[in-house]
Amino acid sequence: MNTIKVGIIGCGSITRFRHAPEYAENPYVDEIVFYDRHVERSKALAEEFGGRFVVSVEELWNDPEITAISDCSSNENHHLNTSEALRNGKHVLCEKPLAVSVDKAEQILEAQQKSGKKLMVDHNQRFTKAHQKAKELIASKELGEVLTFKTSFGHQGPEHWGVNKSNSTWFFKKERSHSGVAGDLGVHKIDLIHYLLDDEITDVHSFTGALDKVDENGKPIEVCDNVVCALKTQKGRLGTASFSWTYYGSEDNTTTIYCEKGILKIYHDPENQLIVETKDGEVIQYQLEPIQTNDNQTKTGVIDAFIDAIIQDKEPVVTGKDAVSSLKVLEKILQ
Fold it and tell me: Which part of the chain is the Gfo/Idh/MocA-like oxidoreductase N-terminal domain (predicted)?
């Protein structure tokens, strides 16, 4: 397989800390072409990562040498950019959530089916060693069937992470982020529960609120900064989930799975990322790898998996269909 050229749309923090460095390290990628509405951003990243930049998105579509595109634009543009890239014969890795609504996500899936190209969505929690090991243990039924679960994802908020490090972040804007913390952090955990349990969340009761965050004018933000919900899956498992931009201490990215013969604790302990406690008192600790946080950027494995799917011509680890099933839950949470 020859090396491939990749285009990236949107040059914010997610590109700078995750997509660009991981493409730069991938042996099959020989050039990264950056596009952002703010040319100075794409120019800066092209310099930092030794790629080049273009001044219009059409240049990415029209370049026959570009095989794949990362869509790192803000949420409201995913259905436009990702669909257009697919229609132009590019494989696409789209940031999550796939779109701001299930309807718009379906448009992307339609474009993908017509194009025959790969579509992968960046639900990166599937790629951590602790989550993969937990899935293996759950599937083996060593602890019996899963009964209940609880999961959490919270940190101090996107204004500490976003490209402009301020309250003017697009994450706080209804017309751009659409779903607030639910689409930023929550959708990751919805996808994770689907993945771990090989199941789907069907019923949702949720509370959402803009409890603390304010925009650049000091007004409460238009999207939720906290979500707490009760969930039920197709197979009858019950669970709870909390997503927050107001955990003003260390980040919480924990999940607990309660089975018939014991429990799995994931990312509760910084040293032992997976702990199994059995009904009869046995404790098994797995030291696997620390979870990636906004302060601790480690390789996600997402880019390598995307490139691998293209080169090996196989189905991506997270498909558009997977992303739509998470988006359906997201819509129920926000109703």
Answer: 4-123
pLDDT per residue as tens digits for the range 189-238? 999 999 999 999 999 999 999 999 999 999 999 999 999 999 999 999 99
Q: In this structure, what token pair is assigned to residue 211? A: 């409890």
**Same domain membership, residue 195 and residue 63:** no
Q: Are residues 134 and 266 in the same domain?
A: yes
Q: Is residue 131 part of a domain?
A: yes
Which strand ranges, in their side-by-side order, compose the sheet holding 226-233?
Answer: 201-209, 226-233, 238-244, 146-154, 255-259, 262-266, 274-278, 283-286
Percent of the chain with pLDDT over 90: 93
State which amino acid sits at residue 185.
L
pLDDT value, residue 299:
76
Higher pLDDT, 2 or 54: 54
Tokens of 273: 């990322």
Tokens of residue 85, six digits: 């890239």
| pLDDT score for 297 | 56
**At CA 65, angle to CA 64 and CA 69, rounded to 5?**
90
Full residue range of the structural domain in which residue 209 is found: 125-298
Q: Look at residue 315 and tell me if it is in a domain.
A: no
pTM tops 0.85, yes or no: yes
Q: How many domains does the chain have?
A: 2
C-alpha distances out from residue 307 to 59, 183, 320, Å: 21, 25, 16
DSSP 88-123: TT-EEEEPSSS-SSHHHHHHHHHHHHHHT--EEE--
CATH code: domain of residue 208: 3.30.360.10
